[in-house]
Amino acid sequence: MLVGLCSDTHDNLALAHGAVETFADAGVDAVIHCGDVVAPFTASVFDADFDFHAVRGNNDGEWSLAETIEKLGTYHGESAHLLLDGLDVAVYHGTSEQLVDALCASGEYDYVVRGHTHERTREDRDGTVHINPGGLPFPGADDDYHVAVLDTDSGDVTFHEIEP
Predict the structure, then answer these.
(1) pLDDT of residue 101
(2) How many CA atoms lie within 13 A of 72 on its CB side?
(3) Whole-angstrom distance, CA of residue 85 vs CA of residue 138
């Protein structure tokens, strides 16, 4: 199974469209957005030919965002525990590093997928793979916007730069 991973689009429609195009070209079965979509009009970009899952980010203040996401996928609130292709996946925006560390250390998850820091990450933590696909570029984080594709069969994580 191929799973698209993205985060922190912050209402940048060009990057959201680029992410969806990248996921479509890769043939993903599902997409997980790790929060900070921000507004319903950006969420609607993810109405595509894949299952869509999203968690709430610290900048997701629009009251109708959850409602919009529910029309095209599943809105999980603060966090999610997904079973994808037999693998346990925790999804959380990532505002608390202590919580991210606890999820990784719990031994309950094959993958912990998060956003918030806007920095691409793929690291093994004692049997759990911690992934942050990246986010909207800003000083001190990644210079370009990236998304990731997780192949659940091989465990490979491929990062893709999205051009605005």
Answers:
(1) 98
(2) 21
(3) 34
Distance CA 65, CA 41 (A): 9
Task: Check residue 141 and give its pLDDT.
Answer: 82
> pLDDT digit string (tens) for 17-55?
999 999 999 999 999 999 999 999 999 999 999 999 999
| DSSP H or E run through 158 | strand 157-162
At 122 the pLDDT is 98
* Phi-psi group of 34: left, alpha or beta (phi > 0 → left; psi -120 to 50 → alpha; rest → beta): alpha
Q: Where are the alpha helices (DSSP H) in 79-157?
A: 97-105
The two three-digit tokens of residue 85, written as one number? 């292709």
Which contiguous run of DSSP H or E holds residue 33? strand 30-33
What pTM value is reported for the model? 0.97
What are the strands of the beta sheet with 87-92, ordered from one edge? 79-84, 87-92, 111-114, 128-132, 121-125
Strand arrangement of the beta sheet that strand 157-162 belongs to: 74-75, 51-54, 30-33, 2-6, 145-151, 157-162
Measured torsion, CA atoms of residues 100, 147, 116, 43, in degrees rounded to the nearest 10: -120
